[in-house]
Amino acid sequence: MSTNTEIREAINTYVRRKGQTRAGFTSVEGGALISEELLAPQKEKVDTVDLTQYVRIVPVNHGSGKYPVIYKSNGKMVSVEELAKNPELAKPTFTEVEYAIETYRGYIPVSQEAIDDADFDIAALIAEGIKDQDLNTKTEQIADILKTATPKVVVGLDGIITLLNTELKQFYNNKFYISSSLFNELDLLKDNTGRYLLEDDITVASGKRIKGREVIVLDDEIIGNKKDDLVGFVGDAYEYCTLFDRQKASIKWIENDVYGQILAGYVRFDVKKVDEEAGCYITYTPSI
Questions:
Q1: Domain of 13: which CATH number?
Q2: In this structure, is residue 11 part of a structural domain?
Q3: φ and ψ at residue 133, rounded to 5 degrees
Q4: Fewer beta carbons below 10 Å: N end or C end of the chain?
Q5: How many domains does the chain have?
Q6: How far is the C-alpha of 35 from the C-alpha of 199, rounded, in Å?
Q7: Would residue 218 count as lying in a domain?
Q8: Per-residue pLDDT reduced to its tens digit, 69-118
């Protein structure tokens, strides 16, 4: 029997016996640790934006600490003659980012019928539930950090072009992380020759680019505060923020006033701003 199968069976037993542990999985704080193998995605969800794929992820083994960061720069090497003295190079800018891992908990929807069904793979259901909630929670926390970027008001087509040409450093991998309402507004925008601002590109999820930069579309309430917000982060999310991942998901039976015992899932991570200059948070106003 493979190790992965043993873990699945052990977790299934843990759930059915309401917390009784057995050999086959790692326990943590009275719960069962869900392995990375079980958390591997079983299906692709095309309707869910995963912001973790756009930011730097640093695995950590402790609940808090400091992480050294070198800011991205436009420094370059210089040519030297053989045996010549080393030339003076641009000094890198270091900073230390402090992180403190937070624990996030969510209800795992496991019905009593599923628990009672001996042939039902509860471990697969748990993995799917944790994976979905993990993705949604991390995306929301990343978006909250992106919304703290330097605010800028952008007016019309000229404002978008000026932003790209003069207000963002070109050595960053700049992208548009915008609300669906702003995406709709820009999708209808034309220049004075009748050409649309958004360019078609089937290689990116949204199918669109702006002046060669990828467009990532998020729900209004995620990257903004309410429906119809014309807002977004424009910049390099990878350089702007870092996700410190404790890389541990677990489940545990907990008491509930209404439902008695319910199964809860836990994930642990922190998201921090790293490079303030790597982007800005825009509010768009149509030109009159």
A1: 3.90.1690
A2: yes
A3: -70, -35
A4: C
A5: 1
A6: 41
A7: yes
A8: 877 766 667 676 666 666 666 666 778 899 999 999 888 776 666 667 65
